[in-house]
């Protein structure tokens, strides 16, 4: 934009700091007229200018309070590096889809408002990546024109990579065969390089050399606890049933004896 070019080098440097990743500015993604834009809240920008990372910058205006930070952000807003927008609902059916943004005519800086970026920042990384990709493609196309020494080096490098991949698959097959044999001969079996497929470093993948395939102890404890609780509950149920039987057995003879006494009284 023309207004951004009129800004002083200090203002451009502050805008570049906020647009970069060192500022710690919380960036959100919105949609303005079908185009995705990054936007942020004013409060987050004030915190970025009051952070220690901004104090380390040279050639930028000093910021010691929130008022100074808001005044500096108002100057950046006047050069249209970012514009004040109104945030609406999601543009898609999902709640996580980008929010709809709309530019507000009254442009002023407020910590409670949202602002969309219209400045892409430094593009040297994008240019460097594009040049590197073009160089790699040209080098691949011009491979027949390479010197014999370079072509021989690339051939050895490719053979070495294929050899490492083949060695990895060979180790995986050998350890599986050895495990099956040890399961039959010496149960529960032995794993060679048990950390081979674990989420560890390259060296740790080959440590230890071998390990018994022992089941986890936690699962046994849980099963044992369940069995013990089942047995105890069964014993409690059987005990209560025995008590009830005893009580019923005791109650029945008492009722019969009472009937016999009543008959004896009537005969007398």
TrEMBL record:
Chain ranges passing through the membrane: 124-146, 153-186
GO terms classed as biological process: post-translational protein targeting to membrane, translocation
Keyword Signal listed: no
This protein's UniProt keywords: Endoplasmic reticulum, Membrane, Protein transport, Translocation, Transmembrane, Transmembrane helix, Transport
Region annotation Disordered: where it falls in the sequence: 217-268
Q: Where in the cell is it found?
A: Endoplasmic reticulum membrane
Q: Which InterPro entries match?
A: Sec62 (IPR004728), Sec62_asco (IPR011553)
Q: Which family does it belong to?
A: Belongs to the SEC62 family.
Identification of the protein by name: Translocation protein SEC62
User: Organism, per UniProt?
Assistant: Laccaria amethystina LaAM-08-1
């Amino acid at each position: 934009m023309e207004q951004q070019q009129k800004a002083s080098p200090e203002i451009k440097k502050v805008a570049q700091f906020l647009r970069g990743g060192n500022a710690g500015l919380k960036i959100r993604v919105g949609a303005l007229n079908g185009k995705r834009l990054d936007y942020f809240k004013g409060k987050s920008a004030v915190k970025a200018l009051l952070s220690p990372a901004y104090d380390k910058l040279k050639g930028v205006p000093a910021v010691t309070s929130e008022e100074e930070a808001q005044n500096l952000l108002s100057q950046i807003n006047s050069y249209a590096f970012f514009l004040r927008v109104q945030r609406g609902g999601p543009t898609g059916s999902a709640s996580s889809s980008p929010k709809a943004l709309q530019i507000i005519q009254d442009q002023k800086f407020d910590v409670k408002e949202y602002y969309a970026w219209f400045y892409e920042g430094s593009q040297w990384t994008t240019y460097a990546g594009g040049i590197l990709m073009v160089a790699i493609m040209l080098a691949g196309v011009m491979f027949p024109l390479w010197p014999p020494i370079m072509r021989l080096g690339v051939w050895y490098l490719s053979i070495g990579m294929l050899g490492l991949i083949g060695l990895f698959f060979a180790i995986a097959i050998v350890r599986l065969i050895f495990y099956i044999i040890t399961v039959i001969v010496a149960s529960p079996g032995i794993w060679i390089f048990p950390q081979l497929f674990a989420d560890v470093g390259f060296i740790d993948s080959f440590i230890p050399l071998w390990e018994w395939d022992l089941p986890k102890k936690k699962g046994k404890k849980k099963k044992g606890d369940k069995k013990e609780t089942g047995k105890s509950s069964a014993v409690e149920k059987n005990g209560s049933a025995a008590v009830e039987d005893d009580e019923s057995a005791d109650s029945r003879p008492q009722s019969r004896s009472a009937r016999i006494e009543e008959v004896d009284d009537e005969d007398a």
